[in-house]
Amino acid sequence: MRLRETATAAGMIRVSGPTLPVVVVCNSILDHRALRIEYVVALRAFGDGALFGDVGGDGPPRVLALHGWGRRGTDFAASLQGFSYIALDLPGFGATPAFEQPQGASGYAEAVVPVFEEMAARPILVGHSFGGRVAVVLASRYPDRIGGLVLTGVPLLRGLGSGRPRLGFRLIRWGNRVGLVSDLRMEQIRRKHGSADYRAASGVMRQTLVTVVNESYEEELRLIKAPVHLVWGSDDTEVPVGVAQRASGFLKEQGVEVTLDVLAGVGHWVPTEAPSALRDAVEQMLGRP
Fold first, then answer.
1. 177: CB partners within 8 A, 6+ apart
2. pLDDT digits over 168-199, tens only?
3. Looking at residue 17, what is its pLDDT?
4. pTM as predicted
5. Any idea which fold 4-157+217-286 has?
6. Among 5, 73, 212, 260, which residue carries the largest CB count within 10 Å?
7. Residue 97 burial by CB count (10 A; 0-12/13-18/19+): exposed, middle or buried?
């Protein structure tokens, strides 16, 4: 896809291309100036219309990108520019409708499988945060179909950061399970003390969020065969860099080739905060023999 950049007096760069239907706005940093960048991208349906995603480049896509919770595939517009790729809107986000029933990362992974029919053999999976959970499940279940993993900000292992609820909340949750605390009171407590993602979600998506945040992926990591490139922000408070360091060691113990890049001064949102670093990791993975 050939793009055209136009600087405006307001400090905006408008990036556009020929006859493409969707405009996505993301934040970026260039020459230490905060800029708003608009990318015009193509949106396609996959899996008989069950999924939608951004497509770019020529030829069979070699990269499949999976976004974080509450985001959409266009988060990868800057980092994947020039590659042949598909960046999905996962179910419940962007243009893709939610599942009828709550799902964990496993359910999301199975929903993504039909997209492989549209791709080159052994594509690279790029996963940010929640999307990385899905990528890991895919790589563990279909090792012969995956050429490599590029992961950033993915809560792969439990036990670091704020992943475990406080004791008081766990006691109240236990009380709810045994009938001592009503469902209404439990919901009021969750709304008051839950994460921003929890408060923003509702219905099936809220139940899905509760499911996935209680998952851990040691078993899936043991089954991964493809090389893994971890790209992490040093200032990530959502999923601290210690998670990446532990996951790197865990994978190396399984004989997996692992690279870990820690980006100084970058937080959780690597696809939009540091797209060039993510792009470099993808390029390295694509360049492997």
1. none
2. 666 766 677 778 778 777 666 665 555 566 56
3. 34
4. 0.77
5. Rossmann fold (3.40.50)
6. 73
7. middle
